[in-house]
Amino acid sequence: MLSALLIRNIRNASKLASVAGPNADRIVNVKWSNGKIGEFPLIWLRDTSPDPATYTISPAMTARNLTMLEFDVEQKAKKLWIDGDEDSLKIEWESGLLSTFPSEWLQIRNPSDQKAKKRRRKVYLFPEETWGKEEIERKLKRFSHEEFMKNDRVVHDFLEAVCIDGIAVLKGAPKGVRGAVEDIGDRIGMIKRTHFGMVFEVSTKADASNMAYASNGGLPFHTDFPSLSHPPQLQMLHMLQSAEEGGNSLFVDGFHVAEQLRKENPEVFRLLTTHSMEYIEEGYDVHEINGKTFRFDYDMCARHKVIRLNDEGKVNKIQFGNAMRSWFYDCEPAKVQDIYRAMKTFTEHCYQPRNVLKFRLEDGDTVLWANQRLLHTRDGFKNAPGKSRTLTGCYFDWDIVKSRVRYLRDKLTLEQNQPSA
Known about the structure:
- There is one protein chain.
- By secondary structure, the chain is an alpha+beta fold.
- The protein folds into two domains: about 15-120, NE0471 N-terminal domain-like; about 135-410, Double-stranded beta-helix.
- The chain is about 30% helix and about 30% strand.
- The strands form eight sheets. A six-stranded mixed beta sheet has the order 9-10-21-12-24-11.
- A hairpin with a 4-residue loop joins strand 2 (about 25-30) and strand 3 (about 35-40).
- Helix 7 (about 150-165) crosses helix 12 and helix 9 crosses helix 10.
- The longest helix is centred in the last third of the chain and has 18 residues, at about 335-350.
- Keywords: Carnitine biosynthesis, Dioxygenase, Iron, Metal-binding, Oxidoreductase.
């Protein structure tokens, strides 16, 4: 269901005035009374026709009935006309099916309208801007944990912020109380299980199996699990016990750094986007499954390109981590030195003050961020006597998070919501 505001604005804009075609390219041209035009592929109109023969829509299912094996992609329209009383485009197909396309239906999906295209892009919840220190300090969004747990609009706004900015914070959960990660996870959807289990704990310990647990010192900027073929796309940490001093959280937008390199040092950018490397991680983790202690031994190895680009040449994925880099399998040995220099340059850019977001998680605070976009770390810390800096955390995938956002947009009929068909 579209928001009432969006439908009202569209309906008030104009009425359907005329239709022509299809032309030689099988395009149907529609014109509205305000002069706007729309160019609609005929076969696409048939494929998306909002009628019971084309779609099954019930409380349990929304699904297309047409299958490509049986779908006639050359089928023709017998007749097209504007129904002025209904303000709709009607098409009678050679098969005898009658399709009705209301004016607002066409305007929302108009491929010739830049506003419609921009609005449609928002359904995918892709970030369109990167950030440096000044930008994120100005717009970092913080929400009440209590309101998040009881108000769906706050859930939507929090997760939308994570989708767009790559990070957002929840404040004010009961201090020192375990279970916040599970509760937040239930509000979002399914937590992603990894070899760390469903929910993990971060604190210093003897015989540590992970660098995060080995000492109170600072850690390097990294993304989690570059050694996995499908690394977790988001990570969440909840502060149970903060340090007496230090232990601040630091983040850098890897997309932003990559864009800086593309403009300021294109040769480094080229090296890091055209050569791949392996990441290996060996060890074990101990966690509970169904109330029983479980030790999982692992030997992870994945091949990742450091940066991937979309067709506009914009960075849309960063993969850096503190797992061991063991082999450059697709380049000449003489190039390896240059690649190390490029990685060094990338790392130095990550630590430049203009790029680093730094803040302190207080007891009861939670941060959720994009693990494949933001690099993260903590600085060194000192514990209070008898206390140990302790966090609990988990991972999510974008599919679950973005699904929740879109579901809530529909449920709350927010202006940003979009029809699926």
